[in-house]
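Mods, move this if it's the wrong board.
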Amino acid sequence: MAFDLPKLGYAYDALEPNIDARTMEIHHSKHHNGYTTKLNGAIAGTDLEGKSIEDILTNLDLTNAGVRNNGGGFYNHSLFWTVLNPEDRGNLSGELKKAIEAEFGSKEAFIEAFSKAAATQFGSGWAWLCVQKGGKLEICATPNQDNPLMPGVACGGTPILGLDVWEHAYYLNYQNRRPDYIDAFFKVINWNEVERRFSEAK
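Not the wrong board. Structure tokens:
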């Protein structure tokens, strides 16, 4: 069974002014769609066909560039859209809030550490908040479309929050001002979804 481009749970303009409609439309309908199409082509007729994207990535042969790049692009963006929400975002609370405060000291310290990982990722890539076995949280960054599900990549664990810092994610609106884009990201995080992923992962 081929992978399908996930539908967004909101309109392209729903995240404005933090993320503009034109960027969202191009990002989703062109970039993510391209990764989806190329992933399907890369796994067609192989033993990877019919497996979940998580299974493919956690057991990935990293020399398989077609699956690594496009499988990563498919998974990363699929997560990214769900942790964004224009409404009903909820607040950082419950067990996730406790875990963040235990690991980083405060929500503000967490935001500072995550923002630094996103801002200092050289070139294209992602910043991640991951859950290790037992519920321990860790922040890391990966280049290109790599992610921590891939064997031996970054901090490992299960990603529950990811920020795309490829230029296609922000350049139309923010140009070279990546820190401004990172700040805007924290205004549209769907904390309810992040907490759901945390509970599931730990």
